[in-house]
Structure formats: structure tokens, C-alpha cells
What does this fold into?
Amino acid sequence: MAGSACRWFLALGLLGCLSAEAAGPVWAIRGAHNTVYLAGSIHLLPEADASLPPAFARAYADSACLTMEIDLGKLDGAETISTLLAHGGLPEGTTLREVAGAPRYARASAAASTLGLPAVSMDHEAPWMVALQLTELEYAHLGFDPEHGVEQQLLRRALADHKSTAGLESLADQMDVFEALAPAAQLRLLDMVLDDLDDTGNETRAVLAAWRRGDAAQLATLLLTEYRSFPALYDALVMDRNRHWLPEIERLLKGGQNCLVVVGALHLVGKGGLLEALRKDGFAPVQMD
It folds into this structure.
């Protein structure tokens, strides 16, 4: 399916018009003494289409805290670079050309050059890091910017309103997921990104339209179908992280204050998604309109 890998990254983390009657990508979950709002995020949005569905504003206004995949309010720039270098590099003395093979390296180099990235800058990066970097550059080329993404918009409001922020995991945790992928899986991921780059724009418009109207079924169709042929990636990027996050979300549901929890839209939908897991544990997510 064209565009799949880039769609996943957009709906994960690291990446249409809403009618007045449409539901939004936000669910309200009642705890014993509070409400936790669980929202599906698009991490990058274009400036011209950056307005959030109305349900976000209502959930934010009713919440005392903002929880994200990573606490972006406490993310330090120097620490971020250090973490990326520590996790995303190849072993000393090893090059991407050696790991990827000459034909794949030539494709990656050509894609990097088209996107304005000197190929030499990738020479000592792991294949998964190159895949992420090329995806990020392609979205930037299409006008998508994390500064207009859901988390950054909400974070600016939370900081201005002196609301507390928190994260479900650290940046190192996220990098560990990719670093732990088997070498063959990393190369397959890079191949998928290289195959997908030219179709990213068309595929992304469909994802954005489904996200804006909170169409979980359509998001599942757009985002999950291709994962069935790559279960190792789905388990690592989605299922394992959902299992890790679920106890913290349920801990928030036992608290005394309302909280808005924002995660990539891909984490909510389909079998093993957070919405299904919460229902199995006796909670009743209600989609906001």
C-alpha cells in the first residue's frame, strides 16, 4: 500500500475539513472522581490546516494537566541531540553503505539529495534513523511542521496557563524501540520509506480527513492494513508501547483531577488500541463531538 510507512510516522510520533456535526478525535473516560480525555494526535500539521477540532479545546479547558507521549515541556535541545546520536548511530567503523548495500544506499542518497540532505550526513546513521530523517524532511517539504502539530499547540497553551505537563515515556524509550529492531527489519523499514516518499502527500490528506472527523474505523483502515504484513514493527511501535502506557492512563483515572492525554492517533485504533484496552478493563470511552 503506497504511503504506508510515512502515514504511520505521521500518526505515531515522533508525524480535510471538519463539519459542525462531525465527531472529533477525542474520547472522554470517566474515572471514579474525575475525567481523563484521551486524544489522538497528528504530530505535524501544515500552517494552513493547523486548527484543532473543537473537542480539543473543550477537553483542554476541562483539564488540569496535559500528558503527552514525551513531556515536550521538559525536553532539552542539547539532551535531544545527545540521545539521537547515542541511539541512532552505527557501530564505530561501520557505514550505511556497508549495512544497506550499494543499491539501497544509492536510493537513500538520491532521496536525501532531493530533500536537501547531504548523503554524507547519513553515512554513520542506522537504517531506522535514516528512515525517520527522510520522512521528516519529506513532510517539511510538504509544509508540515511540528510547531503546528497538536502537541506543540497544546503545550504552548499549557505553559501559558501554568498547567502541569507529563510524559508517558522518555525520548530514550522511543529511540530504544527503533534501536531494538532486528537489522533486517530496519532495512525493510527504510525500503518502505523510500518506496513511499513520492505518494506521501496524497495519502496524508486521507489520514488528516479521517482524523479531523474522528473516524476511528477509517483511520484503522488507512493505518493498520499494511501493518499486518510487518507484525514485528507493529508490535514494537504500537502494541508494546500501548501496554506500557495503559497502567499510567488507568492510574490517572483513579486520581482526583481531570487530565488530557494526547498520543499518536495510531495508538487509539484497531485491535490492541488503547480504546479497546480501556473497554476491556471496564471503562467506557465516549467520543466527544
Notes: The first helix runs from residue 4 to 12. The chain is about 50% helix and 10% strand. Residues 21 and 289 are 7 Å apart (CA to CA).
